[in-house]
Amino acid sequence: MSRPTHIQIDLAAIKHNLQQVKTFAPTSKVIAMVKANAYGHGAAEVSLAIAEQVDMFGVCCLEEALQLREHGIQHSILLIEGCFEASEYKQAIMAGCECVIHSMLQVKELLNLSSVMKLKVWLKVDSGMHRLGLTPHEFIEAYQLLHTSEMIESIQLLSHFSSADDQDKTSALTQLTLLQSLIKTQIAQGHNMPVSLANSAALLTLEQSHYDWVRPGIMLYGISPFRSNMSCPADLQPVMSFTSKVIALRNIEIGESVGYGDAWTAKRRSLIATIAVGYGDGYPRTASSGTPVLVNGQRGELVGRVSMDMICVDVTDLLSVNINDPVELWGKNLAVNEVAEHAGTLGYELVTRMTGRVRRSFIPV
Ligand SMILES: *Cc1c(COP(=O)(O)O)cnc(C)c1O
User: Fold this and answer.
1) Mutate to test the pocket of ligand 1, among 18, 33, 81 (most ligand atoms within 8 A of CB)
2) Other beta carbons less than 10 A from residue 114's beta carbon
3) Three-state DSSP class for 104?
4) How many Å apart are CA 104 and CA 98, to the nearest integer?
5) Whole-angstrom distance between the N-terminal and C-terminal Cα of the chain?
6) If you take atom 15 of ligand 1, which residue's CA is the nearest one?
7) Using 50, 70 and 90 to split pLDDT, how confident is the model at 1?
C-alpha cells in the first residue's frame, strides 16, 4: 500500500501525559478514559501501554470493555453509562466491570436481578449537567436501597462537570458545592464512600475536585481540554500525528479557483499543493480556507473545499515545496485544537472520528 496518508500514535507520549496526571493529582487513583477506541488512538494499544501505571479503565459500554479483555487487560473496567439493558449486568460482572448507575430505572433493574455475584456500582449524580444522573434526593434513596442489597459489593459516588474547561469556574464551583454538601450528608449518616468527579479540565484547574479517583481522557492524548484563549497548565505531548504528502503542485493565475464549487479564488498568482488526505480519512470537511497545514515544516493555508481524498494548500509563501514533501495535518508541530477551531469543532471530535482507511502505526514505549 503506497498512499502516504498515515496516523502515528506515540505511546511514550501517552506515558508522559499520564505522569502529568500524577503530578497534578498525586494522591488520587486514576481511571484512564479509553472510550471510543481511546479517542480514536487505539484502545488496546493505549491501554496496554499504560496498564501498569493506572488503577482502572473507563469505557462507554460493555462491548468496549470486552474488547480490552480480548487484549489481555485485567484491570477493573468502569462502564460510564452502565448497562443498557438488565440482561447485561451478568455479563458485565463476569467481565470484571463496574457499573455506573445513573437512573432509578437502573436501580430497580439491578434489584430485580437474581444474581449471586457481587457488583461494584458508581452512583452518578446529576449535579448540574442535566444529561445523566440521579438527583441528590434520588441518590440518597438509591444508596439506601443498594447498600443493604447482597448483590452490591461497594458503592462510590460519581459526577461530571459541564464547564470545567471554562476560564470562569462559577458553573463548576456550583456543581462542586452541591456535591460537597451531598457527600457531607452521607458522611454524617456514616456512609463514607469514594468519590470521582474530575475530568481532565477539572484535574488541571480545580484541585478541590480531585477526591479519590480522577478520570482523565483528553489530556492523556496530549490535547488541551481548554480553548485556545486559555493556556494549559500541564506539559502535554501530542500523541497522534496525522501526516501525508504533497502529490501535485500547480501555479494558478489571479481569478482562477480551486476545488469543488470554486469556493476559493486566487487574488494573486499562487502556488497550490495538492495533498493526499480528505474527509474520507477523517480530515474535517468543515475546515475553512485558511486552516493551517504544515508542508515541509512550514505553515501553508488550506484553500477551497476539502474533498474526500484530497485537499489543496496555498504554498506560495513557503520557501521550497516539492512533490512528495511531508505534510502534517496535526500532531507534534500543529495542535489538533487549532485545526479544530478552523473547522468549528474540538480536537476531541477530530481524533475520535478518524476513518479506518488511514494507515496506523504505533511508536512503542
Ligand atoms: C469522557 C469522560 C471523561 C474524560 O473527559 P476528558 O474531558 O476527556 O478528560 C471523564 N468522565 C466521564 C464520565 C466521561 O464520559
Assistant:
1) 33
2) 6
3) helix
4) 17
5) 26
6) 80
7) low
Buried b (16+ CB within 10 A) or exposed e, 293-321: bbbbeeebbbbbbbbebbbbbbbbebeeb
Q: CA-CA distance, 22 to 50, in Å (whole number)?
A: 13
Among 167, 158, 82, 76, residue whose Cα is nearest residue 125: 158
Distance, in Å, from the CA atom of 288 to the CA atom of 234, rounded to the nearest integer, reads 29
CA–CA separation, 118 vs 248, rounded Å? 61
Grid cell at residue 183: 457527600
**Amino acid symbol at 118:** K
Mutate which of 60, 215, 346 to test ligand 1's pocket (most atoms within 8 Å of Cβ)? 215
Let me know: does 250 contact 226? Beta carbons within 8 Å: no
Q: Is the pTM of this model over 0.70?
A: yes
260 is annotated as an active-site residue: yes
Q: Is 291 helix (H, G, I), strand (E, B) or coil?
A: coil
pLDDT averaged over the chain? 96
Max CA separation in the chain (angstroms): 78
Chain-centroid distance, C-alpha 318: 34
Count of residues making up the chain: 365
CA dihedral sign, ordered 215, 221, 226, 231: positive
pLDDT band at 116 (very low <50, low <70, confident <90, very high): low
